[in-house]
Amino acid sequence: MTLLDGSEAAKRRPRKRGAPYAKAKLPFVSYAVVDGNLVTGQNPGSAETGEKVAGLL
User: Fold this and answer.
1) What's this model's pTM, rounded to 2 decimal places?
2) What per-residue confidence (pLDDT) applies to 2?
């Protein structure tokens, strides 16, 4: 068994259960994903997440 760092485990666990995994291509850029009514954002300055939530309202 190989020990994985936190980021590798975070990628593999959702995929193992059939969930898509997506992330920003560059660090610290705004990145948001919408799946139905679920909106999730990555990185502290993800204003894009708020815009996507507002678009669902």
Assistant:
1) 0.55
2) 54
